Amino acid sequence: MKIRRYLTFLVFVSVLILAAGAYATDNCSCYDFFYRGAVFNAMLPDEGDIYSNLTPIIESNNNISWQGEGLEKRVLMVAWTKYPSSYPVGQSIRTSWGDTWVTAYPEVKNYFNTHPTSGVDLRLEVAQLLGLPPDTNNSYFVELWVKPNDLFRPSADNEINDTVAQLYFPNNTDFSYKIWFLNNTRYSYFAKRLPWTRLGYTYHWENQESKVGLSEFVIKKNSEVTVRSLSSTSDYLNQ
Question: The organism sits in which domain of life (predicted)?
């Protein structure tokens, strides 16, 4: 209960800061209204926001890509980044810089195959889908082979092998994960003004039909991953 009260307090203070105009999209002021609304709504999730068709990371899921066998079996994930030099293609690297937020391959490609871009501002359209600010500097997609044990769903209910994330922590949730969750709540709503849904999917902040974007996951800090490919945003979505 203490953690839940603390979360409520963080959200309340964040709402005051947001209403006071602490966030500004300097490069894309025309989208400021939509993005502010997304951040505000993401702070206050309820049962109606739960999405029951999240992507499960399980071997029987034929919609995602796998490599290897046994303990070396890996799943292909995709990050959108502004640090291309951190991802040498064909090499194994360790994510020493921290957590890496990803989606499952090929969900980004699939989305833009069925929702062609306008061609006006491709980076903005990706930011809208992935729940990132309209003035983001992310410019590259990187594909990574990742061990499933190095992934978690950024939700109170952080299992990756099912299709729904609940609002509250299961009874057996590790205390260290609760601390991560609280810290990321503070970081998302205070420091970065991000519309983190806390329900396992990205906030598609300019979609009038549904705010549900793509299923999102986090690669744990210091995980060993293998870089499959690195492409500019335009090249990746036009391949």
Answer: Archaea
Confidence (pTM): 0.89
Count of other CB atoms within 10 angstroms of residue 238: 11
In angstroms, the CA 12 to CA 17 distance is 9
Going by C-alpha positions, the residue among 64, 216, 67, 48 that lies closest to residue 132 is 216
Number of folded domains in the chain? 1
Tell me if 57 sits within 8 A of 158, measured CB to CB: no
Residue 115 pairs in a beta bridge with none
Give me the residue label for tokens 């929702």.
115
Cα 66 from Cα 15, distance rounded (Å): 41
What's the confidence (pLDDT) of residue 207?
85
What token pair was written down for 1?
A: 């209960």
Coil, helix or strand for 52? coil
CB-CB contact of 154 with 219 (8 Å)? no
Instruction: Tell which residue, 224, 230, 223, has the closest CA to residue 90.
Output: 230
How far is C-alpha 114 from the chain's CA centre? 20
The pair of three-digit structure tokens given for residue 197, joined into one six-digit string: 């849904």
Q: What is the DSSP letter of 167?
A: S
**Amino acid identity, position 184:** N
Residue 54 is classified by DSSP as P
**Which pLDDT does position 32 carry in this prediction?**
80
For the chain, list residues with pLDDT below 50.
9, 13, 16-27
Q: What is the pLDDT of residues 95-134, one digit of tens each?
A: 999 999 999 999 999 999 999 888 778 999 999 999 999 9
From the list 154, 204, 214, 212, the residue with the least C-alpha distance to 35 is 204
